[in-house]
Amino acid sequence: xxxVIDLIKSFMIxxxxxxxxxxxxxxxxxxxxxxxxxxxxxNDIAKILSIAQMTPGPIAIxxxxxxxxxxxxxxxxxxxTLAVIFPSLVILTAVSSFxxxxxxxxxxxxxxxxxxxxxxxxxxxxIWSFGSTVITSTLDLFITIAAFLMLLFLKNKVHPVFVIVLxxxxxxxxx
Length: 175
What we know:
With 175 residues, the protein is mainly alpha-helical. The chain folds into two domains: 2-134, no CATH class; 135-175, no CATH class. The protein has helices at 2-17, 22-36, 42-54, 59-102, 106-134, 138-153, 160-174.
C-alpha cells in the first residue's frame, strides 16, 4: 500500500509540474521514477515513452498508466493515471473563471513567456534523454535525421504517421 501512496504522490507532483504538454512529463517521470524513487532505469523510460506515443490518448496519461502498472499492477495503473490528471483538473476548475480577466494582463503575459522557456527546456531534455537511449549507432542517427528532415521540409505533404510507419519498415528491413 505504501508503494501506491508513493506512486500517487509522485504522479501528483508530475501532474502539477507538467506545464506545456505530454512531452514535458517525460523528464519529470524520469526524474521521479529513476532518480528519486529508483523504481525504473533509463531504458524503461525509453520503452514507456515509445508505448505511450503509440497508443491513443495523451502521452502523460498513457505514461502514467504504464508506469503505474509496472510499479504496482492494476491498482498502481489506475492511481497513477488519476494522480497525474488531478492537479490539472483542480487548477483548471479554479482558474477558468479568471482566465478572461488576466488574458491581456502584462504581468501574466511575461510570466507565461518565462514558463514557455522552461517548458521548452524540458522538451529538449526529453529529446536528449530519449535520443541518447534510442540512437546507439550511426545508422540510428541517419534514420532519425532523415525522418526529421522529411517532417521539416515536407510538413504539408507527408503525414507524421507515414514517417513513423516508414521508419518502422526501414527498421524491419535493416535490423
